[in-house]
Amino acid sequence: MPIFTPLDEPNHWLPGPLAAGPFTGLQGGAVAGLLTAEVEALAVERQWGTAVGMTAHFLRPTPLAPLRTQAHVVTAGGRVSVIDNTLWAIGRDDPCAVVRVTLARERAVAVPGFAPPPVTAIDPARYPERYVSAAHDGPWFWQAMEARHGNDVFWFRLKDDVIAGAGVLARVLGPADWCHGIGRPLHNVALDPNPNLSVHLLRPPVGEWIGVRPQAWWQPQAGIGAGQGTIHDTDGVIGAVAMSVVLLPWPAPVAAPVS
Fold first, then answer.
1. Which of 66, 126, 130, 167 is most buried, with most CB under 10 Å away?
2. Which of the four CATH numbers 3.40.50.300, 3.90.190.20, 3.40.710.10, 2.40.160.210 does domain 4-105+125-249 have?
3. Exposure of 184 in the CB half-sphere (CA atoms within 13 A)
């Protein structure tokens, strides 16, 4: 079942429980996936080509509530098209998130002396499974995927599409958005939300598995950080991800009631 289901009015969506993040609001990868999937669907209709990259800005927490979106064509035609898509909670005027998607029409170019890297196929199913629970102990986006870890790569196999018929780039964004969290230098000492997310694809993934080889750095004295990583399929590297990080204090434990 898709993570977001369409409502009766066009470009209106209802997020399911698995769209939730670990703390407040929806997971950024789910939000970016929804907005990018809509652009990829438009690209098929209007023959804009393949989605090769996107940048998302998460402006405020997106609630687990009915949502609406609106796309805006920045430029279309020729080799490259650029499309923005913005998301609001229904009944609110201030947007929750915006993505800018870059699309390109494929065109073969002869490059003398170029040789593609050799392929060494990997089977992520041989690595141990990994599960991370949300702070609210309820359903969340991690449960929409099967996750495994081996050889410094975190592997994800989506159980549910973001929306029905989601495109290639939208499918990659969920795993890519984990990069700063799974690569963080310390765990359970500070919150580290990413206010943005940038992903660039070299080619579509082969098969169901999408891997992320993460790195993350913190600067606590300024309360900021950064994350980056390479994105893989079972044949090799297919792209890259990067994001900024804002550090926040770890929530204090809730005191037990006095009897």
1. 167
2. 2.40.160.210
3. 21
